[in-house]
């Protein structure tokens, strides 16, 4: 039995929660995963996992072994990296998940720069507005906007999105330009974003001189994906709120028009998030540093005055 390999397999089973998910993420047969775990338990003479038909849970001995194993594996990877110079030439497969708008407008257009700089890193790029479980989905890092629900993850704030209220010129020609957010409750069509996971609707939000107004209804159209949301606004479906980053090119081209610009919307923080490993792998560190620099170079992703100048 390859003890290091068995430790890696055991750690993956614990993180994934099932043998099937672990086998898929490791790209190996489920039978091989089972065989390695059985051999590890025989070697240690303890039961590490409790198996049920639906899920695997960790025994007390298994939890203690997992904590030590993860640290040892991280030290082992660091040792190999230092010997093989992987820190100066990061390599391996990197699994990243990014929101749809950031993927389309920022990551994908600049991805060739990262690939040229790090030719030995292969990227699996997941693009979705859905919440990702980094551990069970075996994802190395994600880029997401909004405050984080899972405080156990490591989050690095890399930008801020300033939201503005917009509509298509033809919509405004048909329905008129509102002068106050209260007018959106009657006589206008509103386009609302809702969560693809919880189905929670996010109201149009307006702040001015301590006054806060939220408009959630009537919602003519609700959309749960960023690019589709902008398409609905461009098609004249109604009034909505989007970040300057999302709509900058459409404002410049006259396809969208800003309204109610004396009312503000709170900045939305953007984070790059990764699991709380004590040792950040060279490939993840390379991607995180690249993303931080990419965001810093774009004023539309810093919010506030920097975004308003563009």
Automatic annotation (TrEMBL):
Q: Which Gene3D superfamilies match?
A: 3.40.190.290, Winged helix-like DNA-binding domain superfamily/Winged helix DNA-binding domain (1.10.10.10)
Give the range the annotation lists for the signal sequence.
none
Question: Is Transcription regulation one of the keywords?
Answer: yes
HTH lysR-type domain segment(s)? 1-59
Q: Check the record and name the Pfam families matching this protein.
A: HTH_1 (PF00126), LysR_substrate (PF03466)
- PANTHER family under this entry? HTH-TYPE TRANSCRIPTIONAL REGULATOR, LYSR-FAMILY REGULATORY PROTEIN
Family label: Belongs to the LysR transcriptional regulatory family.
This protein is called LysR family transcriptional regulator
- Origin species, per record, is Comamonas terrae
């Amino acid at each position: 039995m390859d003890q290091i390999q068995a430790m890696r397999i055991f750690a993956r089973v614990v993180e994934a929660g099932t043998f099937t998910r672990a086998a898929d993420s490791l790209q190996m047969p489920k039978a091989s995963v089972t065989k390695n775990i059985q051999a590890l338990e025989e070697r240690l003479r303890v039961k590490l996992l409790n198996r049920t038909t639906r899920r695997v849970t960790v025994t007390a001995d298994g939890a203690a072994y997992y904590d030590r194993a993860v640290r040892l594996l991280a030290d082992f990877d660091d040792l190999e990296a230092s010997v093989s110079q992987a820190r100066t030439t990061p390599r391996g497969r990197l699994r990243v998940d990014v929101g749809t708008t950031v993927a389309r407008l920022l990551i994908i257009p600049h991805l060739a720069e990262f690939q040229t700089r790090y030719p030995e890193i292969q990227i699996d790029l997941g693009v979705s507005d859905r919440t990702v479980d980094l551990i069970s989905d075996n994802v190395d890092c994600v880029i997401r906007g909004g405050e984080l629900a899972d405080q156990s993850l490591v989050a690095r704030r890399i930008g801020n999105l300033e939201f503005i209220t917009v509509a298509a010129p033809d919509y405004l020609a048909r329905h008129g330009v509102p002068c106050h957010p209260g007018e959106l409750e009657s006589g206008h069509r509103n386009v609302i974003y809702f969560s693809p996971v919880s189905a929670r609707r996010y109201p149009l939000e307006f702040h001015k001189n301590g006054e806060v107004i939220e408009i959630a209804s009537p919602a003519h159209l609700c959309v749960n994906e960023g690019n589709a949301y902008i398409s609905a606004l461009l098609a004249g479906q109604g009034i909505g709120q989007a970040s300057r980053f999302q709509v900058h090119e459409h404002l410049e081209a006259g396809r969208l028009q800003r309204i109610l610009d004396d009312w503000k919307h709170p900045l939305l923080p953007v984070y790059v998030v990764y699991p709380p490993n004590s040792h950040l792998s060279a490939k993840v560190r390379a991607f995180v540093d690249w993303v931080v620099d990419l965001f810093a170079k774009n004023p539309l992703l810093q919010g506030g005055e920097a975004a308003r100048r563009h």
